[in-house]
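Let us walk through a complete example step by step. Step one is to write down the protein sequence. Step two is to encode the small molecule, adenosine-5'-triphosphate, as a SMILES string so that its atoms and bonds are unambiguous. Step three, shown after the inputs, is the structure prediction itself.
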Amino acid sequence: MEPDKQKLIMIVDDEEDIREVLSITLTDMGYDVLEAENGEKALKLFRENRPMIVLTDIKMPGMDGVELLQKIKNENPYTQVIMITGHGDTDVAIKSLKYEAIDFITKPISNDALEIALQRANEKIVTRQQLKQYTENLEELVREKTMLQDNLSSLGVMIGSISHGVKGLLTKLDGGLYLVESAHGKNDHDQLKEGLDILKLTIDRIKKMIFDILYYSKEREMKVENINLLEFANDVADIAEQKALPHNIKIVREFNDAPPEFKVDSEYIRSALINILDNAVDACIEDNSKDRHKINFTAKQDKKNIIFEIHDNGIGMDKMTRNKIFNLFFSSKQSEGTGFGLFISKNIIQEHGGFINVKSAKGKGTRINIKIPKEFT
Ligand SMILES: Nc1ncnc2c1ncn2[C@@H]1O[C@H](COP(=O)(O)OP(=O)(O)OP(=O)(O)O)[C@@H](O)[C@H]1O
Ligand SMILES: [Mg+2]
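Step three: the predicted structure of the complex.
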């Protein structure tokens, strides 16, 4: 309720003298006063001004006070209505209490009786406001509690999932270290290289995971900059190749139609693309049904967008998996995956105003299409 309305009061009486006297008294008490000489006019003024207190005579030609009381309560049950009664209409006055009038005062109106009735009305208004505020505060508290609970439980899932991922990575570090140590003793260069490759790859995975966690856990301002798309795409392909080549997976670069430059937060888009290429490599490694595996990595443009495409001929996905891949923590890779990758990639792409589209067929492969609008740049 607006505070000024609280001081607004309406007097309804067909006798002008009574209205005048009441108006002076109420103005002296600090109220803003509206006057109406009959029920119809009162209702119109009520609708226009929404006073919080109405003082109405019961006996009036046309719409009487009780009818007006009912209409007002119907439109706003929180308006407080004080009935003015003449001698002999106590019955009607009592009836009006049934319709939720706050009080009634008899003519001739004494200032004391008026003040007491107004005090009751004001107390009711204040109590109701407090109640409303308590309810709102309570609702806010319940909302905060629910949010806190949700955050806590997703934190729990996250910690579980990360610990799982870290455990897998530590096992790999141990394996790499073992190879390096034993190769060192034997002076076996091939094994040394193999061990170092495992260590490098695992450290890259740890870096990626930490980057993902940081992205998820804190807000970061976007750092949009002009980048050379060809250099950028080659750079991303190089990183993916480190993981792909040892498994004989070819990364086919198709960057001929790429625009020379575009503006993005390159650190983030790089991370999104590497996540997706990483998945493509995993999908090829897991697939035993084909002799040769390759991943086509395309950067091109149409009128409105920069387009990246990553197309692998790995294991592909069934519909159920396909529907869950963007969910946080969804991973089909047990200890090898945290389920962060695509969740974060999608967020990054959406932050750039773009979208990601996935087509996949089990046993055949997966095609991921990313569009980032040029006008974002
Ligand atoms: N190219 C793909 N081919 C087949 N399945 C895929 C492909 N990309 C994603 N998926 C499926 O989507 C799941 C979620 O991918 P996401 O990158 O979010 O997590 P992850 O790779 O399991 O773990 P990480 O957090 O290490 O990336 C994968 O576990 C896999 O089941
Ligand atoms: Mg992944």
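Step four is interpretation. The radius of gyration is 38 Å.
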